[in-house]
Design a protein that fits this description.
Radius of gyration: 22 Å
Number of domains: 2
Strand content: 5-15%
Order of helices and strands: EHHHEHHEEHHHEEHEEHHH
Structural class: mainly alpha
Largest sheet: 2 strands, antiparallel
Number of strands: 8
Mean pLDDT: 94
Shape: globular
Distance between the termini: 41 Å
Helix content: 40-55%
Length: about 280
C-alpha cells in the first residue's frame, strides 16, 4: 500500500539550516546551488532566497514538504535522485520541533522509567540516570527515529480525531499497529513494516495534531505511555486490517461467528446475562 502522510513544518531559520545540512550530508553529489534551489521549491517557494527570507524569527510560516517538487527540479538538471533524503531531513526537523515542545519525551516514551540497578547491584546514581535520559532524548531526533516516525504518520493519516481523549487509544497499543503496517514511500520504496519505538509514535501523534494525556507513577516518575483523542473504533478497524491474527481481530471474528449462529439480539442478551 502506498503511504500517504503530510509533513508540515514551521519554517524557522534553524529548520531551514537543518534541512540544508541534512541534504548536504545525504546528497553530496548534487551541486550545492541546485540542492538549495530544489529545497526552496519543495517548501513552496520560487527560489531558495525566498525561503530564506520567509524563515524569519517573528512569524515563521507553516510549509508543507513536497517531494515531487524537489525531485522534479533536480531532474531538470540531470540529477536522478529519490525524494527520501528530503523526507528524512524534514522528518528530523519535525522530530526536533516536537522534542523542543515536549521536554519529557524520549525515544521510548515519556521519561525513562525509574532508576535502574547498576551492574554491581547498586541503585543507579542520579548522574547515570540523567545520562540515560539525555541519550534517550538524543535518540528521539536521530537517524534511527526517522523511518518509524514517517511510518507512524502514514498510519495516523487514517485515524480520525475525537473531541476528547479516549480509553483504548494508548501509544503502546497503537505503536504496535503502526509497526506492522505494510506500506511504501510515495516513490515505492519500502516503509513498513518497521519497528516503532513508543516515543517516536507519540512524537508522530503530536506532530499530526492529536492531543494527549500522560501520567506519572506513585513515585512521581513519568509513565512512558500516553492516550490520545483518537477514534477507538477506527483504531480497532485498523488493528484488524493490519494484524488479522491479532487479539482484536480474533475477538471480532468470534463475535461475528456468534452473531451469525445466535442472531444479534440474542448475542447481546447473552452478554448482558454474563455481565
Amino acid at each position: 500500500m502506498l503511504a500517504v502522510f503530510t509533513l508540515n513544518l514551521y519554517l524557522t531559520a534553524t529548520a531551514l539550516d537543518t534541512l540544508k545540512g541534512e541534504l548536504t550530508r545525504t546528497l553530496p553529489a548534487v551541486k550545492s546551488s541546485h540542492r538549495c534551489e530544489a529545497l526552496g521549491r519543495s517548501l513552496g517557494f520560487f527560489t531558495y532566497a525566498a525561503a530564506r527570507t520567509a524563515a524569519g524569527p517573528l512569524h515563521p510560516p507553516t510549509v508543507t514538504v513536497n517531494g515531487e517538487a524537489f525531485t522534479g527540479y533536480l531532474a531538470g538538471y540531470g540529477f536522478d535522485v529519490s525524494g527520501l533524503p528530503l523526507l528524512h531531513a524534514a522528518a528530523k526537523v519535525a522530530l526536533q520541533d516536537v522534542a523542543r515542545r515536549t521536554p519529557a519525551l524520549t525515544m521510548w516514551g515519556f521519561g525513562i522509567g525509574r532508576p535502574q540497578r547498576e551492574a554491581d547491584g547498586k541503585r543507579e546514581t542520579g548522574e547515570n540516570f540523567n545520562k540515560r535520559f539525555v541519550k534517550a532524548r538524543d535518540d528521539l531526533t536521530s537517524d534511527g527515529a526517522v523511518r518509524p516516525f514517517l511510518l507512524s504518520l502514514a498510519l495516523l493519516k487514517r485515524v480520525a480525531a475525537t473531541k476528547t481523549i479516549r480509553r483504548g487509544t494508548g501509544s503502546y497499543r497503537s505503536k504496535h499497529i503502526a509497526e506492522n503496517y505494510a506500506c511504501t514511500y510515495p516513490g515505492g520504496e519500502p516503509l513498513g513494516p518497521k519497528y516503532v519505538p513508543n516515543g517516536v509514535f507519540v512524537a508522530a501523534a503530536i506532530h499530526a495534531g492529536f492531543s494527549y494525556k500522560s501520567s506519572v507513577d506513585e513515585l512521581g516518575y513519568d509513565e512512558p505511555n500516553a492516550r490520545f483523542n483518537m477514534s477507538k473504533p477506527v483504531l480497532d478497524a485498523l488493528d484488524c486490517e493490519i494484524r488479522p491474527d491479532g487479539g482484536v481481530a480474533q475477538d471480532r471474528q468470534r463475535r461475528d461467528e456468534m452473531i451469525r449462529e445466535y442472531g444479534r439480539r440474542r448475542y447481546y442478551r447473552m452478554l448482558r446475562d454474563v455481565a
